[in-house]
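ok new one. same drill as before - structure tokens go in, u give me an amino acid for every spot. 280 of them this time. try not to just spam alanines like last time pls lmao
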């Protein structure tokens, strides 16, 4: 079969299996197996693929067809323009979260450039490490309750040459972090346990500990809201990604704890997704 024929038949197979963006998935997997850039496939549409290239591709296509996330099969994910290792040890980073980093950098870069930053629930480390690359003078710590996630975050730090600069620490929220923090950023689990049956096959490959936070989904965010004032420096900021429909109640929780300058931001699909506030 030629490259083009393989792409066409894989796309058809993915369509039947209800895989979103079937052609794109086919191109990513074939490029991965051939160790090429996706765009370079277009230069070799007519090339015949030997069995030695088709066999590993078939295996990956089968796994993708049964719902394994593309990023797990590729072993990497793009986040804020950089490549991070990605596997079942932590949540697959989402595009919304890139927006959280972009908002912080575009609005507050001069404020956070020399600050102490903690990324709570760091997962694969994408937020902490992206901020470290944008703010070379900032002191940055990533925390997670999952030792598996922390291992992956440390591998990503190594890969990006940040192992000496960003510290990853096992902690239940902020418990084991030193106080006096300028910015607490968090994309904590925010899915309701009631929504489990509505999740896609792909999402169910994320670790449970990275997804669920009680019946309403906002349990951990609420705990962080209650905890953060004792860790923030006066005027310090809490910046969080939250779930759909959670903003009103969480903004009220912030107000009740005497935070000030409480504001929300929408993601690119128009959903209120980010919640910010200052304390003291
Ligand atoms: C939604 S994932 C986000 C991962 C990463 N920040 C990202 O944006 O891709 C939430 C992370 O919070 C961690 N987590 C869950 N409960 C926690 C807790 N009590 N304290 C610290 N981290 C926690 C999970 O292990 C998971 O890595």
């Amino acid at each position: 079969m030629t490259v083009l024929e393989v792409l066409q038949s894989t796309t058809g197979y993915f369509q039947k299996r209800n895989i979103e963006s079937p052609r794109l998935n086919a191109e990513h997997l074939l490029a991965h197996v051939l160790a090429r850039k996706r765009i370079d496939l277009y230069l070799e549409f007519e090339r015949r693929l030997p069995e030695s290239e088709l066999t590993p591709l078939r295996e990956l296509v089968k796994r993708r067809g049964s719902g394994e996330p593309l990023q797990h099969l590729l072993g990497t994910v793009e986040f804020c323009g950089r490549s991070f290792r990605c596997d079942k040890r932590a949540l697959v980073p989402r595009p919304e979260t890139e927006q959280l980093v972009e908002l912080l950098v575009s609005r507050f870069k001069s404020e956070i450039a020399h600050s102490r930053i903690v990324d709570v629930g760091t997962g694969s480390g994408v937020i902490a490490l992206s901020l470290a690359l944008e703010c070379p003078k900032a002191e940055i710590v990533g925390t997670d309750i999952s030792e598996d996630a922390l291992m992956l975050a440390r591998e990503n730090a190594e890969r990006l040459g940040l192992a000496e600069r960003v510290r990853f620490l096992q902690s239940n929220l902020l418990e084991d972090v030193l106080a006096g923090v300028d910015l607490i950023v968090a994309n904590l689990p925010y899915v309701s346990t009631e929504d489990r049956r509505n999740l896609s096959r792909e999402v169910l490959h994320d670790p449970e500990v990275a997804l669920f936070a009680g019946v309403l989904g906002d349990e951990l965010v609420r705990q962080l809201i209650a905890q953060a004032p004792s860790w923030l420096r006066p005027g310090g900021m809490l910046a969080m990604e939250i779930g759909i429909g959670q903003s009103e109640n969480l903004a009220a929780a912030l107000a009740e704890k005497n935070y000030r300058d409480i504001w929300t931001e929408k993601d690119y699909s128009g959903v209120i997704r980010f919640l910010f506030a200052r304390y003291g």
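The mean pLDDT is 98. and btw The chain has nine helices and nine strands.
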